[in-house]
């Protein structure tokens, strides 16, 4: 993906999250930085909150391999580039500062930090309300209990949204009291279960955030103007989404989705940017996974699903819950690639399914007997229709850890046409079916383990 033009890319997940967006964004940020062309690089988080986690395997400033997980900050921290928080994020000051400080320790992070003055603040009462609902089987949606759903309700309600500008101003205590009074009955119903008084809750929030908001005050920006300055100056801009398109508040699998807009076209107007200036890349894990509640048509609870879950260590970065594993679902990916207006797809975790017989879903069987390649509003009762052809490949045979690293390096250097023929056939048929070309294939967890040559 090396280009003499500024790198302007948006990355979105095409399934139900956990596709490997953190790794892909980290690689793009490092690529832009390493051009050494005199231009800045910035990674912008566009939505979601600490209910999403991006796992990045990289090297710290001492040259030691580390696993760095972000929940609130963009994935540009390990590459030491500028970062920004967009207005549609559920912003958690505590999580954000913790990750910034970790990045300073691990990577000597010293990039510019910008936080939209419009972004809303995720507070303790959001989490308490979320917990109460999730602990009630009739209102549970399988959330992470981080308060993100109640937060976005406040965004929609408008009068109860506390912005970053409110948060860092001297008026924050008064604004917090005003909002909590509006929400008093709802907050008190959650506090009763936790044996906390309304006044104690207010006082604890004020005390907990006094230091945090002063530490963050200097980062507030009229972000839409600052990003346009980056654009006009020829800098590199990378936009990252959290979660996956199957969880979008409008187009996801209702009601088991998140509360924010995940699709790429939503990101640009919120950031004051034009879609025409960017390439949009969908990130697709070669096998879909899903954590928590919600339907996934190709789920496999037999040998393939259990083996991949164990071998690929499919555990949620935010909750530690095991992820359910399914066979490749091209019907769903075609749908989400179109919704996101994708220019290309990055296929991840390809090394984790070698030596497995892969079935590919090319249509859905509906309860009424119809077989269609459409994604319906509700997935209950929908079963996969698999193609007759199956795929199986091997990237390295009986190699030790050193041998695998060398094999990965060789594939990256030689490119697409060095890959096993069965995998190349999989990629070709995927492109034909989905209608959006694969532009990169990840065959390992670290930066640099993605093949782009030949695509």
Name the descriptors:
three-stranded antiparallel sheet; Adenylosuccinate Synthetase, subunit A, domain 2; alpha/beta; ten-stranded mixed sheet; 2 domains
Write the layout of secondary structure elements.
Elements: E1 8-13, H1 21-34, E2 41-45, E3 54-59, E4 65-70, E5 82-85, E6 90-91, H2 93-107, E7 113-116, E8 120-121, H3 124-134, H4 148-157, H5 164-167, H6 172-182, H7 184-194, H8 198-216, E9 220-221, H9 223-232, E10 236-244, H10 264-271, E11 279-285, E12 289-290, H11 303-311, E13 324-325, H12 330-339, E14 344-348, E15 361-365, E16 371-372, E17 383-386, H13 401-414, H14 421-434, E18 438-442, E19 450-451
Parallel strand pairs: 1-10, 1-11, 2-5, 2-10, 5-7, 6-8, 7-9, 11-14, 14-18
Antiparallel strand pairs: 3-4, 12-13, 15-16, 15-17, 18-19
Helix pairs in contact: 3-4, 3-7
């Amino acid at each position: 993906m090396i280009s003499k033009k500024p790198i302007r890319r948006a990355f979105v997940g095409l399934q139900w999250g956990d596709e490997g967006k953190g790794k892909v964004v980290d690689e793009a940020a490092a690529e832009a930085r390493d051009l050494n062309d005199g231009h800045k690089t910035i990674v912008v988080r566009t939505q979601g909150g600490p209910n999403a986690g991006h796992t990045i395997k990289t090297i710290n400033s001492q040259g030691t391999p580390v696993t760095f997980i972000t929940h609130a900050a963009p994935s540009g921290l390990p590459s030491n580039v500028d970062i920004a928080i967009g207005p549609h994020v559920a912003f958690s000051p505590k999580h954000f500062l913790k990750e910034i400080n970790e990045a300073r320790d691990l990577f000597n992070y010293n990039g510019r930090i910008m936080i939209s003055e419009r972004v809303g603040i995720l507070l303790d009462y959001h989490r308490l309300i979320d917990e109460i609902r999730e602990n009630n089987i009739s209102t549970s949606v399988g959330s992470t209990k981080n308060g993100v759903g109640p937060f976005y309700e406040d965004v929609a309600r408008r009068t109860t949204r506390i912005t970053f500008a409110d948060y860092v101003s001297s008026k924050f205590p008064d604004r917090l009291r005003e909002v909590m009074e509006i929400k008093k009955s709802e907050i008190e119903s959650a506090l009763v279960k936790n044996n906390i008084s309304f006044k104690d809750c207010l006082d604890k929030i004020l005390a907990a955030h006094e230091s945090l908001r002063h530490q963050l005050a200097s980062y507030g920006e009229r972000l839409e103007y600052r990003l346009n300055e980056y654009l006009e100056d020829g800098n590199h801009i990378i936009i990252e989404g959290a979660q996956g398109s199957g969880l979008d508040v409008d187009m996801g699998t209702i009601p088991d989705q998140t509360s924010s807009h995940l699709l790429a076209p939503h990101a640009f107007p919120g950031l004051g940017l034009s879609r025409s200036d960017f390439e949009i890349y969908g990130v697709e894990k070669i096998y879909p996974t899903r954590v928590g509640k919600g339907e996934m048509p190709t789920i496999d609870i037999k040998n393939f699903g259990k083996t991949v879950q164990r071998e690929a260590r499919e555990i949620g970065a935010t909750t530690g819950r095991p992820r359910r594993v399914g066979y490749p679902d091209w019907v769903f990916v075609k749908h989400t690639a179109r919704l996101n207006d994708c220019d290309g797809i990055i296929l991840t975790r390809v090394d984790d399914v070698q030596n497995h017989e892969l079935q590919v879903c090319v249509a859905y069987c509906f309860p009424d007997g119809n077989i269609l390649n459409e994604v319906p509003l509700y997935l209950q009762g929908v079963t996969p229709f698999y193609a007759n052809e199956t795929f199986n490949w091997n990237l390295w045979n009986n190699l030790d850890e050193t041998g695998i690293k060398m094999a990965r390096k060789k594939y990256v250097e030689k490119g697409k046409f060095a890959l096993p023929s069965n995998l190349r056939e999989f990629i070709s048929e995927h492109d034909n079916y989905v209608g959006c070309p694969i532009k990169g294939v990840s065959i390992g967890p670290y930066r640099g383990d993605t093949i782009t040559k030949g695509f």
